[in-house]
Predict the structure.
Amino acid sequence: MLLKKALHEHRCVHLIYYTASRKALTDRVVEPLALEPGDWGGTVLRAYCRWRQDMRSFALSNIRRAELLEETFSPRSLSRSQPIAVYRTSISGRASTQASSKTPSTASESTGCIWWLILVGMALLWLLFGSR
């Protein structure tokens, strides 16, 4: 797969991408960073978009054409303002998870954090109002 090769070799990719919200095709050069499962069951390419000069997610189903460029890049890190688990795909096709140390690496850890916050909040409410 072209995108796996681009990820492995840190090569730029020229995309013709369909943006559903604007119902328009856009011409972009991206620096691929990761392939991830999408919320709907598809796959998403996380990449730095040179046109937008920011990290973007591209649904593979909306990529109309992709061309592997000779140009290479130094990999960027994912923004901390967008905490997500990263599914790096190697050339062999095996996926491994990597995540920022400040980001939950799995959905179960994320859910555990939410429950922990709810419990702490309930304990604080009980201490403030329930002990009178």
Summary: The beta strands are 11-19, 24-37, 43-49, 54-59, 63-72, 86-89, 95-98. Residues 80-110 have pLDDT under 50 and may be disordered. DSSP finds two helices and seven strands in the chain.
